Amino acid sequence: MRMDIVREVPRLKPRPADGHKGTFGKVCIVAGSVGMAGAAALAGRAALRSGAGLVRVATARSALPTVAALEPCYTTIALPEDSAGRISGKAIGVILDAASQNDALAIGPGLGTSAGLRSVVGTLVQQDGLRLVIDGDGLNNLSRLPDWPGKHRAEVVLTPHPGEMKRLWSGLFREALPSDRQEAAGRMAQATGSVVAFKGAGTVVTDGRRAYVNSTGNPGMGTAGSGDVLTGIITALMGQGLACFEATVLGVYIHGAAGDIAADACGQISLTATDIIEALPEAFRKSHKRI
Ligand SMILES: NC(=O)C1=CN([C@@H]2O[C@H](COP(=O)(O)OP(=O)(O)OC[C@H]3O[C@@H](n4cnc5c(N)ncnc54)[C@H](OP(=O)(O)O)[C@@H]3O)[C@@H](O)[C@H]2O)[C@@H](O)CC1
Ligand SMILES: Nc1ncnc2c1ncn2[C@@H]1O[C@H](COP(=O)(O)OP(=O)(O)O)[C@@H](O)[C@H]1O
């Protein structure tokens, strides 16, 4: 597969002097469940540290007090839940309202999987004009909807790790996942009309035409919640007006750079996803010297 290799990482524009929180993007993150409130908080907090003007975290009603207590700077939206404390299919109306009121929406971190969640994700990908990041269990629910690429109208970014990629792949293709990561990501992007960030050492970002292979990051980032942080970063960059491919390239680069700064400070062994968020200010300042 031939794709143009992108080597330059995009940058955010300097902030206008009269900018305000409405200028820098409203984003909503649909995430979390009882037992995985942390995933929602990590994504929401990472979005704040990545420059979104307003961050809303929509989560299962029972998980909300925990999610809200973990960070005072985002607001929260309580969603109807099922008996296991996962967001239920009945939440779709509130989620569609949130989608129409925000510049970008993410769904997935810590959701769990269920028929109700599958129908929520399936409905979201069909929304014209929606800019949507799908991660974690959002991808696991999506992989059980084999006909979604033919129906999708939203601008979609998929951020699978190898386990999620395998599930997505077997849902769409009757063949094994190619061992070449760039080929796998490129074919997934072409078949689905999405931007794909195939995560791992040397994350590949592609829209099926262009490919970027990331050089930042380290094995210390193989730690619970690290990918939830990436979701928040990419969503915030989309909220600030970057196109899906550019936001994903910059997001993956900054996430790895923050992971490298965090590893310098506390070592790869002790590094946690929270440390990556704490290192985002330095990662942005190094790469955006004038902002
Ligand atoms: N604090 C919280 O609330 C947290 C909540 N979280 C939330 O949990 C949800 C489930 O996500 P998850 O990734 O833990 O489970 P899942 O999708 O079954 O994947 C595991 C499978 O994939 C594979 N695999 C993974 N990476 C691989 C790699 N690099 N290379 C190769 N294989 C790899 C792995 O294979 P194995 O190595 O075990 O053979 C295993 O089979 C999700 O919504 C997330 O947001 C988490 O973020 C944690 C913190
Ligand atoms: N060896 C590595 N080198 C660089 N980045 C890594 C490495 N291992 C993991 N990462 C990054 O850490 C993140 C892990 O995400 P993910 O597996 O989704 O974690 P979680 O589901 O726990 O949030 C990805 O962005 C991945 O690229």
Automatic annotation (TrEMBL):
Per UniProt, where does AMP bind? K199, G200, A201, G202, T203, G227
Superkingdom, according to UniProt? Answer: Bacteria
Q: Where does (6S)-NADPHX bind?
A: A39, G110, H161, D228
Look at the named UniProt entry and state the broad enzyme category this protein falls under: lyase
**EC numbers on record:** 4.2.1.136
YjeF C-terminal domain residues are 4-287
Pfam families, A to Z: Carb_kinase
The record's listing under PANTHER family reads: ATP-DEPENDENT (S)-NAD(P)H-HYDRATE DEHYDRATASE, ATP-DEPENDENT (S)-NAD(P)H-HYDRATE DEHYDRATASE FAMILY MEMBER
Any idea what this protein is called? ADP-dependent (S)-NAD(P)H-hydrate dehydratase
Give the originating organism. Answer: Anaerobaca lacustris
